[in-house]
Amino acid sequence: MKYYICVALLAALLAGCSSVPNSSSSSSESSSVAAAAPTTAPTSTPVPATATPAPTASPTPVPEQSSIEVVDGITYVNGILIANKTYSLPADYAPGVNEEAKAAFEQMKQAAAAEGLNIYISSAFRSYEYQTKIYNNYVARDGQQQADTYSARPGHSEHQTGLAFDLNSIDDSFANTPESDWVAQHAHEYGFIIRYPADKESVTGFKYEPWHLRYLGVDTATKVYESGLCLEEYLDITSIYPQ
Ligand SMILES: [Zn+2]
Known about the structure:
Elements: H1 2-36, E1 68-71, E2 74-77, E3 80-82, H2 99-113, E4 121-123, H3 128-142, H4 144-147, E5 164-167, H5 178-186, E6 192-196, H6 201-204, E7 209-215, H7 218-227, H8 231-235
Antiparallel strand pairs: 1-2, 2-3, 4-5, 5-7, 6-7
The protein binds zinc ion (ZN).
């Protein structure tokens, strides 16, 4: 009798233990799905990571696992369009300059001007064909190995996304100017990040480019800025050409 009660108690305890996390996790799942559902309206914004069913069963529970989604040959990681050495764009992808990014830059330009600083876009959208010309010229001049440190191969340039802007001189003379310092401090407030930071060359695959901005929107740009990580680290992805 005593034994029976103990077993019954134990069973009740175990049932209690296992049911609590189960019910809380399933309710949080369903609430997150419910919360995500209204936002899956026909906007161009890619669906947040939580709304997409995991394509593979995760072997270990990684809380911030990146969701990689390819739509019409374009890769989105956690909803962020990515073009780097690992992830390329289709040759015919030619969206032109992103209007939202352009408008955000104009706001930033005005804020800089109010402090007596002159920042301007020197290179924005570049087509696959144009990038081919640029890259081939650099390869002819410096050799492929060298060119690969500062110029993207066709299909791998962030400029083809229409979301990247090169400012002012587009060379090392921009570094440490008042304009460069101001951009480094304030770009995220307008939705931009310095895409290829100093000392992240081994991760981004590109040399430090204080003039190259990538538009992410204010929320994401601020999170990336505050993380101190480059975009590859932030999204836990690589930037390496497939051999
Ligand atoms: Zn650039």
